[in-house]
Amino acid sequence: MTARGARPTALPGVVAAVVATACLAPARAARGADDGLYGRFDGDLMLSAEAGPTESFPGEALSVRLGLHYLATAGVFAAYDESFGLAAQPVWRAFAGGVELRPLFLARFATDFEHGPALLDLFADSFALALGGYLAQLPTSACEPPVRCLDTGLVAAASIELPLLPQIDGPFLALRTSLRWSEQEHVALDGMLGLTLGWHGIVPTHLVDASDRLVP
What we know:
Layout: H1 2-33, E1 45-55, E2 60-70, E3 74-82, E4 93-101, H2 104-110, H3 118-125, E5 128-137, E6 150-163, E7 170-182, E8 190-203
Antiparallel strand pairs: 1-2, 1-8, 2-3, 3-4, 4-5, 5-6, 6-7, 7-8
């Protein structure tokens, strides 16, 4: 008798829970869209891949760039520039890698400046500074002694991104300017300006604690 009596009282409770969950789901989704994160905390790592033309004053090249950032804030990058043997290009091809910091996101989020619109917030937060090293192959006409054909040095860059969707994961356009300082005193300072099309993806890896789980 006790088990039979429990069923009528348990069923309304289950129905009420289902109804409450259904009612709260849209509210949760709305808060998630306006929380200033725009999907950045859906995973630990933000992966990015981009490609586009680069002007090297003078000379053009095709640039390909990969990035890996923790919580869309600090991370590493790897880049490759290929000029396809154009005579005007001061560098035929170059590899670069280093660290990158996006300092505005956490500061703006902590001080409650993420109020939208989403595209404007993501645009402002995307400002990045990068520092690293490079290995480049100079054209044969530029590497007569005492200049070596393989050049190494320091690269520094600043960039800003225009998202094409109101969320962190998706396509974007990036404008980047950078400078290369050669370790060879006979190689001039090399400036670059590039425009690339790329894609961000968010990956949950639980780097801090493998037992962490995202709360719905």
